[in-house]
Amino acid sequence: MQIEETEFEDLYVIQLEKKGDERGWFMRTFDHNFFSKKINRYHSEWKQMNHSFNSDKYTWRGFHFQNSPFQETKVIRCVQGKVLDCVLDLREHSRTYLKVFQVELSQDNCKMLYIPKGFAHGFLTLEDHSALVYLHDEYYMPEFESGVRFDDPKIKLTLPINPIIISDRDKNFNDL
To answer: Could you report the per-residue pLDDT of 132-165, keeping only the tens digit for each?
Structure first.
């Protein structure tokens, strides 16, 4: 496992390493001691794990987040297909406030994204039948959930193609 810092404070790309032989492969996707040593301010206790499946390419999900006091740290991994994963910095005192970080996650590139509290998360599927697995350090609290539209003029998100499928909820978030 290798941890790559990004220009966004406390946001990391994690490169997983497959160990293979004639039987197939094995890879470690989480190691508390390793994360504790390599990730600034790491203190997460994972409370929930979610799995998202998306039938069609060019589906958009996001930008989602939970408000205080239930903000979440997340680890995201694509286990099937390919997505363009996008995170929006909502930390008002951050030098990257309202900027978006993007990384391609796929079953083939074996990358994960460590997202600290204070970010909104979204993704665009780049292949049919794409699936993500998420670790969360907070429980889902619907009354604290919120979001930002992908086309909110304040964030100037650039995508390789406009989403074809997007939920009514995700289309109708208020402007920032």
So the answer is: 999 999 999 999 999 999 999 999 899 999 999 9
Which amino acid is present at 43? H
SS3 letters for 141-154? CHHHEEECCCCCCC
Q: Is 64 an annotated catalytic residue?
A: yes
Q: Which of 12, 58, 114, 134 is catalytic?
A: 134
Considering Cα of 164, then 167, then 168, then 174, what sign does the dihedral take? negative
Catalytic, 134? Answer yes
Residues 120 and 134: beta-carbon distance below 8 Å: no
Active-site position among 64, 97, 121, 140: 64
pLDDT digits (tens, 9 = 90+) for 46-102: 999 999 999 999 999 999 999 999 999 999 999 999 999 999 999 999 999 999 999
| Cβ-based neighbours of 21, under 8 Å, separated by 6 or more | none
| Torsion angle of C-alpha atoms 138, 144, 148, 149, degrees rounded to 10 | 110
Structural domains of the chain in order of their starting residue, each with its CATH number: 45-108+116-171 (2.60.120.10)
Burial string for 25-35 (b: 16+ CB within 10 Å, else e) reads eeeeeeeeeeb
